[in-house]
Design brief:
alpha+beta, Ribosomal Protein L22, Chain A, five-stranded antiparallel beta sheet, four-stranded antiparallel beta sheet, 6 helices, 11 strands, 35% strand, globular
Length: 211
């Protein structure tokens, strides 16, 4: 299917979402890979992992109109080899997302809301964070908290961050889309971020773009 969502936010960042309906061969035909990239692709044992990897590169090509390569630093943080953009990547089930910015730090996370996240809430929520008791909204509210913490984890380069102890999502009124505040606090950083969230089909998406 390809790109189902694309938006540019005040020339500061670009977001794209790709819905994977293509086969491996169809995605592979969209890309020109060098030997190093082909070796990486061949190294994945799972067909689903190969399709995910290709979808990320296909989406990046659509967003940048270039063949720039994704590389990773020692913390497994993705970077563009040519340094043209800062990049954050997320994938869940049929959707792949990328957030880009030339000058700002970026973090994005999307999740397919199918799992019993309620069973995991105590591992990432702290006592100051409030979640609705409405059973029809609680799962979505929890997923927004989780996605927000994942986005903050990515934007802060994954430095000694515990989701429950070092990431705080301030109370917010749950809507289909909105803005929230998140604070990161550990020995390396004490900073508050403005994040935005929205729902797409049965996915929750949270992203942040900050200087």
């Amino acid at each position: 299917m390809g790109v189902i969502y694309k938006n540019e936010y005040r020339d500061e960042c670009i977001m794209g979402i790709w819905k994977i309906t293509e086969t491996y061969d169809e995605l592979r035909q969209l890309l020109t890979l060098d030997r190093r990239q082909q070796k990486i692709l061949n190294g994945f044992g799972s067909l689903n992992r190969k399709i995910e990897w290709l979808s990320v590169r296909a989406l990046l090509s659509e967003l940048t109109n270039s063949s720039t390569r994704i590389v990773y630093n020692g913390e497994r943080k993705p970077l563009l080899e040519d340094g043209s953009y800062n990049i954050s990547i997320s994938h869940s089930d049929e959707l792949t997302s990328i957030l880009l910015s030339r000058n700002r730090r970026v973090g994005i996370d999307l999740e397919h809301m199918t799992h019993r996240i309620e069973l995991l809430a105590s591992k990432f929520l702290n006592d100051s964070e409030k979640v609705t008791s409405d059973p029809f909204l609680q799962r979505y509210h929890l997923y927004i908290h989780w996605c927000a913490k994942e986005a903050l984890f990515k934007i802060c380069d994954k430095k000694n961050i515990n989701f429950r102890e070092n990431l705080i999502i301030h109370p917010f009124e749950l809507k289909d889309e909105g803005k929230i505040l998140g604070t990161v606090w550990n020995e390396h950083i004490h900073e508050t971020f403005n994040l935005q969230y929205f729902k797409l089909e049965n996915y929750s998406i949270v992203w942040c773009c900050k200087e």
